[in-house]
Amino acid sequence: MTRTKKSGMKSRGGRVAVIGAVGLASVALAAGPAFAKGGVDIAAPRTVQVGKTLTVKAQGEDDSAGYLHQLCLEESGFGQGWHQESCSAAVEGDAHVTAHGTSARRGDLKFRAVLYGLTSRHDHNPVRLHASDVVTVHVR
Description:
With 140 residues, this protein is of the alpha+beta class. The chain has one helix at 2-31; strands spanning 38-43, 47-48, 53-62, 68-77, 83-87, 95-102, 107-118, 127-131, 135-139. It is extended and about 75 Å long. The N and C termini lie far apart (86 Å).
């Protein structure tokens, strides 16, 4: 009789632990912030000759409601910091931008694309939503 009573207690204790864990997990998931889905892709050649045309393309999307989207290409190279190279117009859906240029000297150029959210076409405080990985172009 004692043996049955102990196993019954163990099984009830296990059920209580499982129910408590499931309840805690559901509360943690409900309390967590919701994240908007989206991302930015960038494409550039790996190498380019000095003086030849270089084309960098980027595409960005985000499903956050209430924002217009603007995609900007940023460049860094030859000892300079990051600076904006080109930006798209503010659009409601997916944003696309293409930049063409040439390099007059050898070295590495780095590019990244940044997607911004704007509340209007003339918003002076854009919100940075996503950034792409950095791509390096070797100019030889």
